Every structure is written in structure tokens, then in C-alpha cells.
Amino acid sequence: MQGAPMTTVTNASYPYVPYMKRTLISSGSPFEQEIGYSRAVVQGDWVFVSGTTGFDYSTMTIADGVQAQAEQCLKNIESALLQAGSSFKDVVRVTYVLPDGKEFPECWPVLRQYFGEVRPAAMMISANLLDPRMRIEIEVTALKQAKYSDVSRESGSGFNP
């Protein structure tokens, strides 16, 4: 409604927070500086990890195989999550981008190792990546779980502020 006054609802269970600290996390990758982005952004309890490729940022090398690249992507993501005070157990959404979607099943054993118990919402997109050596890019969103109980798969509920 145009002209309607804005109201703020506050109570003990759901306090209104007008400002959430924003933290930028870097992996040291030269891509972050060259392109102008952060490896991850922490906003309140949310952690947004940028699309991450299989480069080993300490050596700026990349393996040939898609499975090895997926493993390195996840190691890079784990480092960002830990810097953010989070972990894979907090991941609620994951997006995979592969230039050749037919290679995705090769990644499943590695992905199951990291996400098998967490089972986040997921999507796989087939699209070209910036460098032809890149065979997979992975992006995740996490919600720090310190304030919430574990979600029960049986009931589909578990939110307990």
C-alpha cells in the first residue's frame, strides 16, 4: 500500500535487528581482487559463499579431472565456511555449474562425502565457465545453526527458537 506507515514487529522470539554486521572473507585468490568480489560474505547468521572452482589457491594450479576439481572446490568452500564461523553442517543451498553436465555423476561420491548427511537444497546448471580448464564451480549458502535445533527429516520440522 502506497503511503502506509512502516511498522516494526518485535517480540522475545523474533527481535527486529535493524543492522547486521557484514563480514567479507577472502581466500587470497587473485580473481577476487581482479574481478571485485569476496570469497564469502557473512551477513548476520547467513553465509554466502561465491562460486568456487577447483583451483588450489596456494599454488594457483588446477587438477585435470572433474572429481578432483570437485574435491578442491569443497576444500576451498570449507575454508571460507570455517573463516565465517560456520561449517558444511550449516549449508542449506548448493548450486553446481558444469560446462559438461554429463560429467556430474562423476562428482557424486565426493559430493555425498560432504553433503550426504546435510542434504541441502541443490541445483545443477550446465554452462560455460571462465577458464576452459575449469570443469566445475560450486556455490553454497549456509545458515549458522547455533540458535536452532537440528531439523528432523521425519517430521520436516525442527525450528525451535
Please describe what this structure looks like.
- By secondary structure, the chain is an alpha+beta fold.
- The protein has a single domain (22-143), classed as RutC-like (60s Ribosomal Protein L30, Chain: A), CATH 3.30.1330.
- 22% of the residues lie in helices and 25% in strands.
- It is built from 3 helices and 8 strands.
- It has helices spanning 30-35, 66-83, 104-115, and strands spanning 22-25, 40-43, 46-53, 55-56, 61-62, 91-98, 121-126, 137-143.
- A 6-stranded mixed sheet has the order 1-2-3-8-6-7, with helices on one face. Strands 4-5 form a two-stranded antiparallel ribbon.
- A hairpin with a 4-residue loop joins strand 4 and strand 5.
- It is globular and about 45 Å long.
- Residues 1-11 and 151-161 have low confidence and may be disordered.
